[in-house]
Amino acid sequence: MCGNHSSATEFYLLGFPGSQELRHILFATFFLFYSVTFIGNTVIIMMVCVDKRLQSPMYFFLGHLSVLEILITSVTVPLMLWELLLPGMKAISLTACGAQLYLYLSLGTSEFILMGAMAVDRYVAICNPLRYNIIMNSHTCIWVVIVSWVFGFLFEIWPVYATFQLTFCKSNMVDHFLCDRGQLLKLSCDDSLFTEFLLFLMAVFIIIGSLAPTTVSYTYIISTILKIPSVSGRRKAFSTCASHFTFVVIGYGTCLFLYVKPKQTQAAEYNRVASLLASVVTPFLNPFIFTLRNDKFVEAFRDVMKSCCQLLKV
After folding, report:
1. Which comes out higher in pLDDT, residue 32 or 252?
2. How many domains does the chain have?
3. Domain that holds residue 260
């Protein structure tokens, strides 16, 4: 225990080590990633809203997934870019640190639930196509999205509250580019072992809990696809879920690496790399994964661009 030590009221984010030239290269790289993430996911949202061919549950969920990706990157990347552009440590208040951690974890939790729902949607579309419109009706889709958002923001209240109930008296230097929970726990001089264990169990509940319906759904999907007699039929069926499956592998792989571990206070380099994958690389890949291999989306996008060009000519 800390005894009479006082807790830090603000933190200093150390960001990325290295020379100023390296930091400028990282700034340019991450700024490009963030720009592509923001523009690409915004295009997906606009296309889902305006094109009637994309008015289906799969694209409805994809639109909300894109909203989550934009918000997740916006919570972390702008501050990271500011740290890279300007030399020196960046101060962040205790309140701002808690808000960033809460938003980051809440949005991530909502995304996991939505990914599980998208897997079930693909299962119904491929394994029960005749009942698809009945099961995945607009009422069901809206409730799934509401539950994913509400649950994500309610579930992460206690983990963040418990983290900031600790006394941070060892130091106020956070060796990260964001308010990472693992690095914050390293600064506490309280006995945080029990808290870490509870946080580990909650991470397991969310990640493994949302991964379970995904695994079951894809087990049935693959089994059903293999029973299709024609090669073209199997290819067409697999193409409808290949994008989501790719995103699931990348997203879950990264977060299993980052959060599902009993000891939260890992090395700074470990957490920094994993956080970059979760908050920068994965959202950057999302627009490419869900659009380049999707013929219906590409066709709709091409038609919208032609219409815009015709309007500009007039």
Report:
1. 32
2. 1
3. 10-313
